[in-house]
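Appendix B. Extra example for self-study. Work through it before the problem class; the solution is given directly after the inputs so you can check yourself.
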Amino acid sequence: MLNINEVIETNQMIHEMNLDVRTITMGISLLDCVDSSVDVVCEKIYDKITTKARNLVKVGKEIEAEYGIPVVNKRISITPVALVGGACCKDTDDFVKIAKVLDKCAKKVGVNFIGGYSALVHKGMTPADERLIRSLPKALASTDRVCASVNVGSTKTGINMDAVKLLGETILEISRQTSERECIGNAKFVVFTNAPDDNPFMAGAFHGVSEADTVINVGVSGPGVVKRALESVRGKDFEVLCETIKKTAFKVTRVGQLVAREASKRLDIPFGIIDLSLAPTPAVGDSVGEILEEIGLEYAGAPGTTAALALLNDQVKKGGVMASSYVGGLSGAFIPVSEDQRMIDAVEAGALTLEKLEAMTCVCSVGLDMIAIPGDTPASTISGIIADEMALGMVNQKTTAVRIIPVIGKGVGEQVEFGGLLGRAPIMPVNSFSCEKFIARGGRIPAPIHSFKN
Amino acid sequence: MADKQMKRSIITVLGKDSVGIIAKVCTYLASNNINILDINQTITAGYFNMMMVVESEEVIKTFSDMSAELEQIGEEIGCRIQAQHEDIFEMMHRI
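Solution. Structure tokens for the complete assembly:
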């Protein structure tokens, strides 16, 4: 029989430490919606998504009420649209048509984001892939809930530098076209290396081609719970520290496992994976930066930050893996700047720079995330930042990503306010030396050797 | 819930200690055909903490109605009353 202290502990985690299930994401394959007419494709997509996901939000709310655990987001991920629209989209406007239908579906079923307006171009671009990339500025400007991603590199294929070059220009154009809404288009767009097929988190979620027709993936969170647990072991050695993180991650993940199992049963859709990520929000007490401080750093970004983040990420995985039967997605600690109050504070205090963030992404779950840079940054510099981040992922056999927002009309020292879960971001300085000739070369960086590791 | 039988649930009451908290909650449960299997309570830092393990062979109300009504009673007596399926605690604290 349960004892009262266990019950109190669980409820304190929920009520005082922001423990929640960050997202139930339903993956839906759209491969069976392919047709040579764009209107038929749109119709098929609308029918399939609104049928498969019609109860998603309802079930999420039921679970929330019955178990007393907040399920913050209900979302959908779909087959990369470049594949679905390849046969019918003759120009970028055809792709935008599909984006609008996806937005309509999301609003109809009540999910806050739908991810998968994506292309996988890590070795080469098909004409459809290129059209989708070129349609991004318009697609993201004319929709509210559609999230996009492009995978430009992998450990096995290298990095598609033509795509990296094109994306530098595209990201600037996305900012221009959404400049009246704080350049929000780029908050919904992410560039990947080694993108996972089953990631439930936005903006990078898509439903990989190796997945089943429909699947339920769940993303757990709980930076606040880890932070509070660490308060009780201040000054103790690393063994105690690591044990504490591991045990906490186990408990957090078990809740995710329960929610995933229930959602899967009630929706009659197979359970895919749990993504064990510490995903911060701008709320006080829901911050990864705060955990780093509790580990012993004055601010995130201080010397020791990379080591602290490495151990945090590893212990979260070690604790989480035992708690769930299937673990996947990104699984680790996210370090977005705008979505984490203590990371914002660290940037404003001058403790955290773009270069330090880049180093941190070698050991965390994703990459340069929600970083605002000056709007006059050249396209080639953005491509250079992407190329650096992609190289880290390629060589280290991990997922890395860039979600960067050039803010049109603003410079270093100013800030941009996205609101809600996306938070606010101080505009960070970018190294002003040029990489234009490097990016102009074009072609592909070959895959790295997998032996002789040093 | 469509099932006739209610999943075993935990009701927690948290708030300032006052006369008649247990009586209020028990009266409600009895009138809704809900059986109390275990009661445990403790007072920490002046706060009243109670946990009840309950179940019902034949439910009259849906879980969400029961949960909402208990919450309402909680508001009347100045406590937070929450009903949750037992699984969330079992999952977290038992391997």
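Self-check: Chain B has three helices and four strands. If your reasoning did not lead you there, revisit section 3.
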